Amino acid sequence: MQQSPSGDGSKAPRPQAPINIFRRLLLGRNVLNLCIILLLLTALYYLHTSPTPSKSTILSSATDKINNNNDAEDELASCKLHLSLAERAAKSAADSAALTNQVLESLADEIKDPSHHAEIIPCPAAPSCPECPTCHSCPTCPTCASCPVCAPAADPDTYGTHEKKWLTIGMPTVPRPENHLGETIDSWLKQLPLHAKDPLFDDVILVVMNVHGPGHKWFDEAKQKYTNSEKSRYIKFIMLENPLNDPTHGRQDKGDANHPGHRVRKQTRDISTVLSHSLGLSDFYFFTEDDMLLCPNALPSIQYMLGKAEKYKPNFMSIRASYGMNGIIIRDEDVKGFSEYLIQHQERRPPDHLVVEWFAGETLQSKSVKNSRSHFSFRYNILHHLGIVSTLRSEKSKSFPKCFEELGEPTLFKVEAFDYIKCRNDDISPCDVDENVKTPNVGWGMMCDSSLCFNSKNPNKL
């Protein structure tokens, strides 16, 4: 018999098989332990047989859950936005309803209380309109447009309703012993219409510029008188605050009829300044001075000569209808250029000479500006000079042309005078146009009253 490895002669314990353990549990009636073992075995079996999810499956599942959460958050934000917009719309609707209710209540109060109605002002200036006896209803009645109270008020910034008018009258003014300025303004305004249906209504602007500065009482009186008058739409008052400097640096030379002294140079700069302030106001610009009355019925003659000149020579350059620096009409597109021409040549010639060389194209510079355009002469004088002293010459004159007296040499230079030989049956020259275009002379002298107009039987009578 072999010895045990221990050397003590005893036998080693034999390992027990699982079946033996199970038998002992049954024999020992240890049921609780058996149940526990069965449960453990069952759990081990299911763990062994069930599939284990891969990493990609786990990540995909987690990503889906995250995306679902994001979608839910987006839907929640969208709901909040729509809710906010709905709240704003509801508030706006409530405000509109409240405002509408206030307006309706106000109208109801006015209907109930006649004292809330607009004041009705009589319109005595329109007696020919019995169906429109008050200014409250004047705007609906064309005949009542002649009522100065009913007519629309002039906007001080635009001076009327037309964006660009037909005619600007530029009038520099200086202090004089007599109130010639007031008379001159009146002579223009009394020929301008109050009736809105008149073709000239709100289409003329008189630019009166005080080129002297403070101390011109006639200018101050005129401004006060006309600013709020029924014809305020036709007049614009300007105070020259920054006069242009004399290029001779203050030389006090007297000059003569053909060589301007310091006073005449100042007048040239003043005319240029009025031009620059009138740029773009109208289609045509009319030169005049503050001691030159517009002859009776002369405003229609301006319409007539401009229309006829446009018919004879479209895009003509100028028309001469008086003498001196008066009664000259140029186009708005030439206003800026001539204003600069005056400043450039003020030392060389007086302004009434410069204007002739300009529209007649007598220099290379003016010839390029003229560009073959015609300059016209109207047959009759349409301005009446107050007094006996020339503004430009500061000297007495024995006589000045009367209203609607024919204009010619030596009052005007030959190049600007009416051509009685070639145009004896016309009233503007040049008149070299086709017979189907030409129109006959109109007797403008017969339209003038006897107080100011030229009398052929007694030329000295005004």
Automatic annotation (TrEMBL):
Keywords: Membrane, Transmembrane, Transmembrane helix. It comes from the Eukaryota. Residues 245-265 are annotated as: Disordered. Residues 248-259 have a biased composition (Basic and acidic residues). The chain crosses the membrane at residues 31-48. This is Uncharacterized protein.
